[in-house]
Amino acid sequence: MSSASDSNTKSPLDAALKIVAELTGMKAEQQSLALKFAMETLGLKPPTATPSAAPAQSTQSPQPTQSHTVSGADHSTDIRSFTAIKAPKSDQQFTAVVAYFYQIEAKPEDRKEVIDADIMKEAARLAGRAQVARWNMTLTNAKNAGYLDGAGNGKFKLSSVGENLVAITLPDGSPGQGRNNTAKGKKKPARKASVKKK
């Protein structure tokens, strides 16, 4: 009777202590084999929950890098091809194209928030466009036309009007800025003076 009651009152801790006592003194390989044989005999499977946590962390990290590479691919245009695509019809429109390119389309390391006469001179050279006598005056005229905003010390930045011009209007349907923008007036035929005969 007492042996049956003792078997019913055994706890997992007591069983674990007996297993530890039996395995004490054995080598690690022998201990693992003994545990393996015991689990197979009891029909138990080793837990496999821990390895599944690692892939969950690795699947989250690639997402930001993919979006970064996609955004970087949008800025691979050079100033020469960008100017050719937009086809500005005047030097003032060209200043808006340059400001737009360096602020939005250029590679991150080449971007500029403002432009000045020196930048315009270099941009014209790179774009294969004819130089003007005074880029400062052209920039000021572009500001007066609304394409640029003044940034002080001879520097200018793209305005909302200039951004819309480059992003939406150019190359088609853009009004020329003072170049072939006025319709040629037709000459009215001269009226012949009528001479009243007396």
What would your notes on this structure say?
- The chain has 198 residues and is mainly α.
- Among the domains are: 15-45, no CATH class; 73-169, Arc Repressor Mutant, subunit A.
- It is 54% helix and 5% strand.
- The chain contains 10 helices and 2 strands, in the order H-H-H-H-H-H-H-H-H-E-E-H.
- The protein has helices spanning 2-8, 12-23, 28-42, 53-58, 62-73, 79-86, 91-105, 117-127, 135-144, 160-169, and strands spanning 148-152, 155-158.
- Strands 1-2 form a two-stranded antiparallel sheet.
- Strand 1 and strand 2 (155-158) form a beta hairpin.
- Helix 6 packs across helix 7 and helix 7 packs across helix 9.
- The longest helix has 15 residues, at 28-42.
- The radius of gyration is 41 Å and the shape is rod-shaped.
- The relative contact order is 0.09.
- Residues 49-76 and 174-190 have low confidence and may be disordered.
Give the helix/strand layout.
Elements: H1 2-8, H2 12-23, H3 28-42, H4 53-58, H5 62-73, H6 79-86, H7 91-105, H8 117-127, H9 135-144, E1 148-152, E2 155-158, H10 160-169
Antiparallel strand pairs: 1-2
Largest sheet: 2 strands, antiparallel
Amino- and carboxy-terminal Cα gap:
162 Å
Unreliable segments (pLDDT under 50, ≥5 consecutive)?
Answer: 49-76, 174-190
Q: What sort of overall outline do the alpha carbons produce when their principal axes are compared?
A: rod-shaped
Instruction: Give average pLDDT, whole number.
Output: 75
The helix-strand sequence is HHHHHHHHHEEH
CATH architectural group of the domain at 73-169: Orthogonal Bundle
